[in-house]
């Protein structure tokens, strides 16, 4: 009776070499991303992180009485690609926001709108946001 040819795919050495070749090919096919400053974060997200940290520190952690009626709602990881934070009524966290601060443009230019911007506090909010968006974390101007 003739002997059948050995099945080379069952040989452990052939399987190891095949696995190494496949892994090498997969590794070579991986896309290379160039490193960027900010760990891949958009300018809008970097700006909003900086501004949100300063706003929380200066308006809420400091217990500023002007912001006592509000709560800070962070939405920096929004799937819409528009990182933002909101100030909402303290007694109704699900209520309409009194202030929305977001960065919409690729350059991270801030927009702030809502009823608080039309009140006397609006000028201070605008001044604080402008200062924080340029890199300062100073709470200058808080009561």
**N-to-C terminal Cα separation, in Å?**
99 Å
Mean pLDDT: 78
**For the CA atoms, what is the radius of gyration?**
27 Å
Q: Reading side by side through the largest sheet, how are the strands ordered?
A: 1-2-3-4
- Enumerate the spans where pLDDT stays under 50 for 5 or more consecutive residues: 21-37
Order of helices and strands: HHEEEEH
| Helix/strand/pairing category | alpha+beta
Q: Counting H and I runs of at least 4 residues, what is the number of helices?
A: 3
Morphology call = elongated
Strand content: 5-15%
The biggest beta sheet, please?
A: 4 strands, antiparallel
How do you describe this structure in short?
The chain has 143 residues and is an alpha+beta fold.
Task: Describe the structure in your own words.
The protein is α+β, with helices and mostly antiparallel strands and about 140 residues long. It has a domain at about 45-135. The protein is about 35% helix and about 15% strand. It is built from 3 helices and 4 strands, in the order H-H-E-E-E-E-H. The protein has helices spanning about 10-30, 45-60, 120-135; strands spanning about 70-75, 85-90, 100-105, 110-115. It has a 4-stranded antiparallel beta sheet, covered by helices on one side. A hairpin with an 8-residue loop joins strand 1 and strand 2 (about 85-90). Helix 2 (about 45-60) packs across helix 3 (about 120-135). The longest helix has 19 residues, at about 45-60. It is elongated.
